[in-house]
DNA sequence: GTCTTCAGTCGGAATCATTCCGATTTAAAT
DNA sequence: ATTTAAATCGGAATGATTCCGACTGAAGAC
């Protein structure tokens, strides 16, 4: 997913392309592996555009998520995080440092069978493993 | 999971068995298929023990979860929910009525391979499908 | 290029589930 | 019966997120 692709997607969806949105897209892409949250995006964005408002960051992320440009990872104990990788995958979430690692899903769930059995129609998925990343395991041993 | 089993588990963990904890266990078991949240447990509990405090409900659920008696399902948009079914399964979460349905996981993830590849050690899992349950699909069509 | 309009932006206040606090009570071991 | 650490209580604090009304500017029409 490139900067230009995302801006094009905005245009397709009829959303306006503003400097704030370009900025937030940039931060999202640069910090992609970190799966940044609103506060990091706000802090990083404010460095480059001091007038940026936190409300705008939230509104923008909400719009992007609603339009399917990004995926919101919701948490209770920690702030929500946002990811640009929309391929089906498992998120490995470190309970110590909060790092989030993508892991390709070898999951096989027959959704037709699921719907037949339960009457439930799947719209979106959320697959997460919580534990400790390599670095944090090392720190614990030491 | 029966009432007696859970109380026994409390004893094993060195936790005190109080009337409030018995009460919360009862509500958890009775409302198990609904995967109740703190407010429902509080409301239901207060009917039977008017002196019950919301703080106690939260503290108790937190302790139970910490000791592995129950599993906390954390959400951002809606209040957290608690489940007694500790078998690995997918939670089907209706985005309209909030109902949560258990679905057995035919997932196959080789955790040894996962750890080898990523260095990540899995502690707990969270598998969720969001969508619409049978009843809510019917209402939409009508 | 100018005009127009509505989506987008802004800062601050409000929200609300959850956590924290210090005082009181009580389960259960001695 | 006594002791004590754990549990409970109500109310205040927290903090990420949402809401609000006023202002601004992107982009389509002319």
Question: What features would you describe in this structure?
Answer:
2 copies of one chain form a homodimer. Chain A has 142 residues and is of the alpha+beta class. Helices cover 44% and strands 20% of the residues of chain A. The mean pLDDT of chain A is 92. Chains A and B meet through β3, α5 and β5 of A and β3, α5 and β5 of B.
Q: Most extensive interface, residues per chain?
A: A-B, 37 and 37 residues
Structural class of chain A: alpha+beta
Please report the number of helical segments of chain A: 6
Largest sheet of chain A: 3 strands, mixed
Assembly level: homodimer
- State the total count of DSSP E strands of chain A: 5
Q: What gyration radius of chain A follows from the Cα positions, in whole Å?
A: 17 Å
The best one-word shape of chain A is globular
How are helices and strands ordered from N to C of chain A?
Answer: HHHHEEEEHEH
Strand order of the largest sheet of chain A: 4-3-5
Low-confidence stretches of chain A: none
What is the typical, i.e. mean, pLDDT of chain A?
A: 92
Straight-line N-to-C gap of chain A:
39 Å
What is the element layout, followed by pairings?
The structure is a homodimer of 142-residue chains.
Chain A: H1 3-12, H2 19-30, H3 38-48, H4 54-66, E1 71-73, E2 81-83, E3 89-94, E4 100-104, H5 111-118, E5 121-132, H6 134-141
Parallel strand pairs in A: 3-5
Antiparallel strand pairs in A: 1-2, 3-4
Chain A binds a DNA duplex (30 and 30 nucleotides) through α4.
Question: Which key terms come to mind for this protein?
Answer:
DNA-binding; alpha+beta; globular; 3-stranded mixed β-sheet; 142 residues; homodimer
